[in-house]
Amino acid sequence: MLIDHLNRQLLEHRAQSLQRQRRTAESPCAPHQRVSRDGQPARELLAFCSNDYLGLANHPALIAALAEGAQRYGAGSGASHLINGHSQAHAALEDELAAWMAPSIPNAAALTFCTGYMANLALLTTLGDAGTTIFSDKLNHASLIDGALLARGALQRYPHGNLDILERLLTRCTTPLKLIVTDAVFSMDGDLADLPALLALAERFDAWLIVDDAHGFGVLGPQGRGSLAHFGLSSERLICMGTLGKAAGVGGAFVAAHPVIIDWLAQTARPYVYTTATPPALAHALCESLRLISGPEGDERRARLQQLIGQLRTGLAALIAAHPALGWQLVDSHTAIQPLIVGSNAAAMALAAALDAQDLWVPAIRPPTVPTGMARLRITLSAAHSQSAVQRLLDALAQTAARLSGAGTGAETGAEAATIAGAVA
What was the pLDDT predicted at 216? Predict the structure, then answer.
C-alpha cells in the first residue's frame, strides 16, 4: 500500500538524520522571531537562517507600500497576466526592473513571475528546445536543475566552477543553440561564479549565459544592482533571473533579457501563461523596495552587512583553529551566506540542536541539498543583525566546540554532553 511504502521511506529518512521539520513563526521575519514547533509553546529565537539580507522584510516603508497597494488594487489579481491579472503595478515594476538591468543587458526588458523556481522552470523549458544544449554547473540551484531536466534539449553538467571542462564541452557541441546556466552566488557555499570568464566563453562559442542572481540581487554591485553589475558586465547574451523575496524583502521573481526573449517567454512559457499573477499589492510594494535598495539607506545596509560578514568570518576562523580535531571547515565565501561544514548528518543535526538549546536558530543542511559528508550549518546574515547578535552566535559555537573537544566547563549536564558527543560520533 502507498501509506505503508511512504511510512517506510519516512523511517529511513529519520534513521539517516534527513528528516525535515517546519517551525511556525508568530512574528515578522526579523533576527529575533517568535516560533513554535511540534505543538510546543512559542519562544523567541535569534535567527541566522533568513535570506532577508538587507533586513527589508519588516521595513515600515514596505509595509506601508503593501497596504497602499492593497487599498488601490485589492487583495488578488484574479487571473493570469494574459487574461486580466496584469495590473498597472505589475507593468510599473517590470519597467523599473528593465531600467535597473539595462546597464548590464542593453535594451533589457523584464517579466515578473510568482517565484524564482517558476522563473527558472520557464526559462529553461522554453529556451531549451530540441536544438539546444544546456551546460549547467553541478552545484546550481534545484530549480535550475529541474528546469534543465524538463527541457527538451540535451543537458551536460560540468564540475562546479571548472571552466576548463566547460570549454571542452562547448568545443565538442554541435547543436545550433547553447545555454550556459549558473548561479551567480551559490546558495549553499556562498561563493561567486566567475561570470566574466563564463561570459567570455559564451561570446567565443556563440552561446547565451543564463545567470540566477537570487542571492546577489540587492546585495552586490553599485546600488545593489546585482552580480552582473558587481563584475561590470554588459552584453545582450546575458539572461538574468532575480528573486524578489530575499534582499528585496517581499516576494516573486523576474527575468531580464533581450526584448525578443522576454516576448517569447510571455507567449509560450507554461509557468507564466498558466498561472494566476501575483497580487498587485506585492508589485506595488516592490517598486518601493527598489527605491530603498538603490538609495542611501540601501548603501548603509550593504556596508553594515559587510561588517557583520567580516566579524563572523574572523570569529569562525579563530574557533576552527582552536579546535582542529572537530574537522569543521569555513567555506571561502564573502557573501551573506556563511556555511560551517561539519561533516556527517548527525553531527550537523547535533550542532544545530545545541544552538537551539541556547535559543539560536541556525539550520542544518544535509544531502541531497549538499554532497554526502558535507553536512553543515548554513549561517545567513542580515543587515538587521547587530554585532552583539553575531558575537552571541560565536560564543555559543565556542562553548559547544569546547564541550565536543572534551574541554567543557562542566556547566552542561552529563546527559547533554553524551547526547551531543554520541550524535557527532
Answer: 98
